[in-house]
Design goal:
By secondary structure, this protein is mostly helical. It has a single domain, classed as 434 Repressor (Amino-terminal Domain). Helix content is about 65%, strand content about 0%. The chain is built from five helices and no strands. Helix 2 crosses helix 3. About 15% of the residues are buried. The mean pLDDT is about 95.
């Protein structure tokens, strides 16, 4: 599971609802939450954050916490 997947799971977020709100296929959101090799784009992160009522900066910090 990816950091994005952990973030959404910890908040009990329905991925299908988020996918519908941001206009992506549910498969794309599943890929972003389960596949470590998937590349999360900044615009996707921003839209996901807005769709779930989260602060995009907080979400970015969580998702990228391992980067140095």
């Amino acid at each position: 599971m990816t950091r994005l997947g952990e973030y959404l799971e910890n908040r009990s977020i329905n991925k299908s609802d988020v996918a519908r709100k941001i206009g992506v296929m549910p498969q794309r959101l599943t890929e972003l939450t389960k596949n470590q090799g998937a590349h999360l784009r900044a615009n996707e992160l921003y839209l996901i954050a807005k769709a779930i009522g989260a602060d995009p900066c907080e979400m970015l910090d969580y998702v990228c916490q391992d980067l140095k």
